[in-house]
Amino acid sequence: MACSKLFSGDLPEITNEIIQHFRGDFSTLYSCILINRLWCRLTIPLLWENPFSNPNQNFHFIEIYLHYLNDDDKTKFNNHEIKINDFYSSDTLFNYPSFIKCLSTYEIVNSILIWFNSKFNSSIYKKFKSDLTTLQLIYNSLFKIFIDNEANLFTFEIRIINCRTLDCFNCTFELILQNPNFICNIKNLKVRINGEIINITKIGLFLSLLSSNCDSISTIHFKFIEINGIGKFSSLIYNSQRNLKKITLQSRGFPLYHSLLSLKNSNCSNTLKTLIFHHINFKNIIVLKEVFDHLNVLESIHIIDCYFINSEFIQQIININKPFKLRSLFINQMYEIEIKPFQLLIQKSNDYLENFGFRSTIRDEFKFQLLEQIKKFCSKIKFLELYGLCENQCIFLLFDIIKNIGQNLNYISIGSNTTNHSSLILQELGQILPFKLKYLNLSIMINTNVLEVFLKNFHNIFIQKLLICNNYIMEYNQFMIPFNQWMFLPDGYSHIINEQDILPFLEKYIVEKKRIEYLAYKDSRDILFLKDEVKKFESYNIKVREYDDLFIHYDNYIGETY
Fold this sequence. Notes:
F-box domain-containing protein
């Protein structure tokens, strides 16, 4: 396809296709601007479609946006000790506000606060924080700029974490109400509200307005509890959409019953393909069978850290007349657990299950029984995350599962907080890993001798992202003992090592042989603090990153993959 366009002389189109692959990679996009005029013209819209989400942004773009206000609107800032004309006096080369595609109410508020703090002196900023009128003026002005410049929103997130973010949304609601075309083409809708927020009346009214003016939503993420009748407004959204493909429902207090009934009777029975339950409480939910039987094209169901997976729940699932295509099951509970329903759920899911995990809070006996079911029924796991492996039987089952799955397995996270079991994992793991992995995260207690065994067995394996968290030091660091004072350690700590010990092993067996693309290592501190080591590793074209930056949260992975 690309070659045919190239030979036909359609260079702008193929260049645009190339640049589209860099969406979200801000550093690469900034480089593209410098190539030539064509690349610059094609790149600028991508840089400006979601500037509020760029963590490395200096927020100068807010000043550029405010430059688009008319003179009357600019004068409103005079009473707030802000001179808009002093920010940006030259004409702009592009109509930047028209490029906006993604807006998050929280990110806008947060960006304004950071910008204001860096732009003005402490006395003005202190006054600004105590008086919300300035914040609301800037916030409302930005929305007015986007509306006046006919921006076409693709993603809109209402994220309310406190009264400040709620007040800002409320002050903009009237503006949106007067300009419904601003929201008429939304594809992705997210509504996430802190459970402590009480008065969300205008958010409900917004959902009602949206259901009357927009039928193009394909993805929904709702996270809130039932308050101010918001459940009935969310149901209006389901019923009004003609191409709804993915829904995520999150929060233990979410109004699940009404949402499920709405799905049963909505237009999405022939469009909905993905349904994600995250931290959902299934207690007293008795309509699962009839709902799932009406969802005719559902291909992907995900249960993430949910509650009351009991005999009543599983019986409804067993009675469904269609295959129950459970793609993800993650468990993170200390109570309310019955083992039998989970065993039956895994058996019912069979090879549909692609992502599985549990946390260290699960009882060891429970972990063993779950892993037995995974080994027996699930051979197509792609993402495996197992923490708290402190029994030999569980570890041997893990080895069997990895061997059975083979190259289907792309993402592995393993955690253990005991010395012997961490060593057992390292001794065997290097021999059974798939030849290619996208991600391996080891959060264990590292013994130098066993670590070398693991790395020697690594010679035929390539891993795109390798993460190691040394729990020896992470645990012992709680005592705040400096490296040079680690003497007379308690039993079990005789093999404690720091980065000066482990990094030469990584360099010798992993970095020099280029067995990885990205590396993250953490013990008492992150590897990025060791500038010389980072520079040496990067000379081998290994990208060194902070551990938390490379760490994959399973809920994010599922949200992005399905």
